[in-house]
Write the structure tokens for this entry.
Amino acid sequence: MLRSSFHQHLENVKDQISHLGNEVLTQFDQAIHAFEHSDLDVIKKVISYDEQINKYELEINNEVFQLIARQQPVATDLRSLIVAMKIAGDLERVGDLTVDMAKVSKRIDAESYLEKKHELLTMAFDARKMLEESLVSFQTKNLIVAQKMAAFDDKVDAQFGQFIKGLFQNETSEHGAEQLTQLAFIARYIERIADYATNVAEWVIYESNGEHFDLN
């Protein structure tokens, strides 16, 4: 395979990752909507689309394996392929977490604990912004945007800690305790999505300089 052909295939892989990222971002948007509005139709849509997200990741990995087998790349080219698989894996895990959010949303009463739900929506929108920005950093190779993920992740971690700390401070019924537990699950899923968005940014930095910089 000519080097120019290899780089064209590499760009195709990166385009596939951008597409996967946009699909996962849409999944997250829909999971947030489903949680906010208890929308059963959207919940079903998020759950059913997970199979397609998994397929996209598999296609990216297969393409990377074929490139490695045919070209036997070294140095920066090999690093770019490794990063492609790592980012695809992180995005697929975000997709899994949006499904988890959707499933839990089915078990949450629409009109209960509205103040707590508002806290979670604020946290979700911050995590969503992180995911969007991490994808921008990948698409544009913008290390400044990637490095900003550390501060964003600290913010979401603080929101998560504060939310969990205040969740069970007041006595509640057995049903109320179950509802609060479901909200805690949602909070954990959002916090993990923020972590994976940070991972994507870390891989962007690694691809650029060959050093793994911990932003978490």
Helices lie at 3-37, 40-71, 75-105, 114-140, 143-147, 149-167, 174-209.
